[in-house]
Amino acid sequence: MPKIDDSIPFEPAGFAVIIVSDTRDASTDKSGDLLASRIGEAGHRLVTRTIVKDDRSAIRAAVEAAVANSEVDAVITSGGTGFTGRDVTPEAIEPLFDKRMDGFSAVFHRLSYDVIGTSTVQSRCTAGLIGTTFVFVLPGSPGACRDAWDKILKDQFDIRFRPCNFVEIMPRLSER
């Protein structure tokens, strides 16, 4: 049964949040606000937060910069996962993955189905590893960000979460 083992000391992780949008700015970025708040409330560090346009090159450059920052353990993007012509976040980021995390998308869609029903099929959320950095590509809605953080990422970035979590494997991600 999943649980928190309070005998293990908490270890904070460093996060980069990248919002992908042609219309949002710092004053209207509800998804970024939600993620920043949740990251801080959980005891982690928000290393960087930025907004980039729906442009493959801009998205890729922002993710590559975040991954190059040694303080960043995980990147969370929000936006650009739908099917419109401007939705290009998966296309920008997936080629950078060294390893895909197909289970993240499967679990996200399972949880999302309980909230929005079959509309979950309109999201192309994805995740993977770039080098030793976890990267999560979320839809742009605050609800999707809340569900991903509260129901998946919060536990996986808590070393006390059992039976297993991302934090305990982070030192081994560079093994060959």
TrEMBL record:
Matches recorded under Gene3D superfamilies: MoaB/Mog-like domain
MoaB/Mog domain ranges (all copies): 16-160
Transmembrane segments: none
SUPFAM superfamilies: Molybdenum cofactor biosynthesis proteins (SSF53218)
Keyword Methyltransferase tagged: no
Cross-referenced InterPro entries: MoaB, MoaB/Mog-like_dom_sf, MoaB/Mog_dom, MoaB_proteobac
Pathway annotation: Cofactor biosynthesis; molybdopterin biosynthesis
GO cellular component: cytosol
Presence of the UniProt keyword Membrane in the record: no
Gene Ontology BP, a term: Mo-molybdopterin cofactor biosynthetic process
Keywords: Molybdenum cofactor biosynthesis
Function: May be involved in the biosynthesis of molybdopterin.
NCBIfam families in UniProt: moaB_proteo (TIGR02667), molyb_syn (TIGR00177)
Annotated family: Belongs to the MoaB/Mog family.
PANTHER family: MOLYBDENUM COFACTOR BIOSYNTHESIS PROTEIN B
Protein name: Molybdenum cofactor biosynthesis protein B
Native organism: Acuticoccus sediminis
